[in-house]
Design a protein that fits this description.
This protein has 390 residues and is of the alpha+beta class. It has 11 helices and 12 strands. It has helices spanning 7-14, 26-29, 35-60, 76-82, 108-118, 132-157, 179-182, 213-232, 249-255, 308-316, 338-342; strands at 64-66, 70-74, 87-96, 100-107, 162-163, 167-171, 190-199, 203-212, 327-330, 360-364, 367-377, 380-388. The model is unreliable at 16-30 and 255-289 (pLDDT under 50).
Length: 390
Amino acid sequence: MEGMLSQEEINALLNGGTDNADSGNAGVVEEALTEEEKDAVGEIANISMGTAATTLYSLVNQRVTITTPTVSCTDWDTVAKEYDRPCVFIQLSYTVGLDGKNILVLKEQDVKIIADLMMGGDGTNTSGELGELHLSAISEAMNQMMGSSATSLSNMLNMMIDISPPEASLVDLNDNFDEEAVAGFMSKTFVKVSFRMEIGDLVDSTIMQLYPIDFARKLYDTFISGALEVAGSAEPTPEPAPEPAPVSQEQMMQQAPAMDMGMPMQGMPMQGMPMQGMPMQGMPMGYGMPMQNVNVQPAQFQPFANNLGMLSQQENIDLIMDVPLEVTVELGRTSKSIHDILEFAPGTILELNKIAGEPIDVLVNGKYVAKGEVVVIEESFGIRITEIIH
């Protein structure tokens, strides 16, 4: 129909454009953020994600870089067209200090790599479908990342902030996806904060943080009010204390105590220059230490007897005879990844590095001292020593 706006024009209005807006679309335009609000939200997100990147580094043991964010106002149709399918949604809510829901959007492949690194892998075990183990791992990662981010926000906004435990889910961005069922704010214009995330040489991708317009404005208002409060409470710079009046040589000599005339002063300094061994200007000379004659001579030590160490060893060995030591018999060892350990269940069989019939190891306080064979003494196991390790 004539006079109606196209979808592209509506999207332009939702993104903050006003060039083609008329009076009938004023309500739509008012929902977008101003440039000042976008800058403030971007600065807050930048500091928060910087802390989150440090936390992620400690979890995956890889270099993590999260670049400066890009803030925009958009709608769900635009996001769905731009992002990979399927993707992972991590939903969390602010429970203290701020009131609102956030959604973090990550690519499926990125989640697999992060989960594999957290479970002790090298980040290449990403075959197969995304399962509950991957979602649990990314939920724990985001819980710690956004927890540290909330701490940064608390310091920045000067208020207590806490979040709910994140919930991760795999989402297929198809035509039947009900965005309003996931979060009510996604059915209209919302804020999208995009970050570029790099994890070592494994990940070079984009993550998104989505939240409502009113939540972004709340962040902006809190940030600005906190900045104004800090600026208003700043104390004026105190004026420097006046310098003490200069003291002449005559005044210094009058304040000085009587000195031994047998020790003449060498080279009286110019006015205003302190002498070596004398107090600084303005300090009474009575606090100076008088010069004394000191007798210095080299120290002399009694030589040690050659057999002193042997006698001490023979005399003191009896003192430790009753000290108890922990003796451990080791049947064998093996190495498993966290992924394998999480799959342990009753009946699971572990293959050790020992061959059947091979002597087992005897350790004393963790040190390998002997080999032996297993025997049965009545109803208990025992060990018969077969070899002492020197």
